[in-house]
From TrEMBL:
GO terms for cellular component: Golgi apparatus. The keyword Transmembrane helix applies. InterPro entries: Glyco_hydro_43, Glyco_hydro_beta-prop_sf. Belongs to the glycosyl hydrolase 43 family. Keywords: Glycosidase, Hydrolase, Membrane, Transmembrane, Transmembrane helix. Pfam families: Glyco_hydro_43. CDD domains: GH43_CtGH43-like. This is Uncharacterized protein. The gene is LOC123070897. The chain crosses the membrane at residues 35-54. The keyword Endoplasmic reticulum does not apply. One of its GO terms (biological process) is classical arabinogalactan protein metabolic process. GO terms for molecular function: beta-galactosidase activity.
Length: 482
């Protein structure tokens, strides 16, 4: 298929451009000439494959026209390169190396990651800048309102935001955004030398905001349990990735989370409810969905009010997706296995005009790794894998999801096709000082790596997460909420 391949590679180079507008015309011309080439020279399979290709061009070309044209988002879609020099390696603290996840072989990249994870290295300091550079809504001018991925981020009381592995709920009732996440404001320790670094359960913190930049702490809305050692939320246990959705029928705010014991053998989901977005939440129970182990998870509420649980299962080898019951307090019996044998975790699900997307990470403990984007027209699957969505920065940053792990993707209502990618930059030597990486994510253009598609042609719009040292929300991001 040389003709089609050359068209595809032209498409790829276009996708790397910041302004994708002209690509539709170019694709049409490219397809016309490849078609006549085929009519003259090629038959059978080649012809069928090309017809597939053209039909997908039409489909995705249409999708493409939805976004990337807004002047407001053009700045967010600028490709920003990084040319930093990695500091010279120092002797890595052997304890630090042992503490990080064991990787096969010892590539240059894994040595750099080990160095980065070592809290005493210069490389670590580069990506965990000190509090003097903090994003601070109590000082200076709110009108700058820049996001600085990786910097300390203070709330409106001047304290570092503690909402790790979090997610955001837009509450129609109060026209306010609520950010829920793990409060990790305690000491990091290990139960035993082979175990993962941990912090005792403090609870789920909630922050409120109207502008997504200055966040007010609403308190710990689901606290850890201090005395009852058999309770799921006893401080010695694990509570991760809390996500909250609102049930319009029961008028309850429903929180789902990963519940585990200190050595991650319980592998369950937990459920809590509240009448108010700011809690307090009452903890109901934990269980293994459909009897399967469940570690990293998320929930997604669709436009039609149906909600779904996605969980990493079977020893993190695959994900399962299941609709929730109408009250959002349990899973239904429907279940599908997706991304089987892919070893993906940290799922974040979002939707644009009938297509569902998901960002996941590989499973490598606290160490960062390359993200993948996935897409489907049917939320229950099958899901297809598109490729690494990271754009800009440099090779090192793209291979590490900008040194972070996905946790949530928030739609910007006034800018369809533009989202905020929310991720955690874990700091395993001091988990409480883990940082937030928020970056613009956009859907538009053709995917340049449709890894699962049988003919190897792009069939989905490309998902791009754009690196920026600093950025802010464009005008009009909130407009369409009534
Ligand atoms: C910035 O905005 C927050 C929340 O709106 C407010 O509490 C704070 O006082 C503002 N700071 C300044 C310096 O205006
Ligand atoms: C401790 O927690 C367990 C599990 O939630 C519960 O069944 C038990 O009643 C609790 N005990 C006390 C004394 O509250
Ligand atoms: C898990 O941890 C508990 C104590 O927290 C311990 O009793 C148990 O033996 C551990 N299980 C495994 C498989 O390590
Ligand atoms: C959830 O549904 C399953 C299957 O119907 C049922 O066995 C289980 O008891 C339910 N759990 C709760 C907490 O209602």
């Amino acid at each position: 298929m040389p003709a089609a391949v050359s068209v595809v590679s032209r498409g790829r180079s276009k996708m790397r451009n910041t302004q994708r507008k002209p690509s539709i015309l170019n694709f049409d011309a490219g397809c016309g000439s490849s078609l006549s080439f085929i009519v003259i020279g090629l038959v059978g399979f080649t012809l069928i494959a090309c017809l597939f290709f053209i039909s997908h061009q039409v489909k995705t070309g249409h999708a493409h026209s939805y976004s990337s044209h807004l002047p407001a988002t053009r700045e967010l879609e600028q490709v920003e390169e990084e040319h930093f020099r990695l500091p010279p390696p120092h002797k890595v603290n052997p304890r630090a190396v042992k503490r990080t996840v064991k990787r096969r072989g010892s590539t240059k990249a894994s040595k750099i990651i080990d160095e980065y994870l070592d809290g005493s290295s210069a490389l670590h300091d580069m990506f965990f800048p000190s509090e003097t550079t903090a994003v601070n809504p109590t000082k200076g001018r709110n009108d700058s309102m820049y996001f600085y991925p990786g910097r300390v981020w203070l709330d409106t009381d001047g304290n570092a935001i503690q909402a790790h592995g979090g997610g955001i709920l837009y509450d129609q009732n109060t026209a306010t955004y609520y950010w829920y996440g793990e409060n990790k404001d305690g000491p990091t320790y290990q139960i035993h030398p082979e175990g993962a670094q941990r912090i005792d359960i403090i609870g789920v913190s909630c922050y409120s905001s109207k502008d997504l930049w200055s966040w007010t702490h609403e308190g710990i809305v689901l606290p850890g349990e201090r005395t009852n050692i058999t309770h799921d939320l006893h401080i010695s246990k694990v509570l991760e990735r809390p996500k909250v959705i609102y049930n319009d029928r029961t008028r309850q705010y429903v929180m789902w989370m990963h519940i585990d014991d200190g050595n991650y053998t319980k592998a369950s989901v937990g459920v809590a409810v509240s009448r108010s977005p700011t809690g307090p939440f009452s903890y109901l129970y934990s269980f293994r969905p459909h009897g399967f182990d469940s570690r990293d998870m998320t929930i997604f509420k669709d436009d039609d009010g149906m909600a779904y649980l996605f969980y990493a299962t079977r020893g993190n080898t695959e994900l399962h997706v299941s609709p929730l019951t109408a009250d959002y307090l349990n899973v239904t019996s429907a279940i599908r296995r997706i991304l089987v044998r892919r070893f993906r975790e940290a799922p974040a699900v979002f939707k644009l005009r009938g297509t569902y997307y998901m960002i996941t990470s590989r499973c490598s403990g606290w160490a960062p790794n390359p993200a993948l984007a996935h897409a489907t027209h049917k939320i229950m699957g099958p899901w297809e894998t598109l490729g690494n969505p990271c754009v800009g920065g440099n090779h090192f940053l793209r291979l590490t999801t900008f040194l972070s792990q996905s946790t949530f993707v928030l739609p910007l209502p006034g800018l369809p096709g533009t989202f905020i990618f929310m991720a955690d930059r874990w700091n395993p030597s001091d988990l409480c000082d883990s940082r937030y990486v928020w970056l613009p994510l956009s859907i538009g253009g053709l995917a340049d790596e449709a890894l699962d598609y049988s003919f190897g042609f792009p069939s989905w719009s490309r998902v791009s997460i754009y690196w920026h040292r600093k950025w802010r929300l464009p005008e009009g991001w909130r407009k369409s909420y009534a």
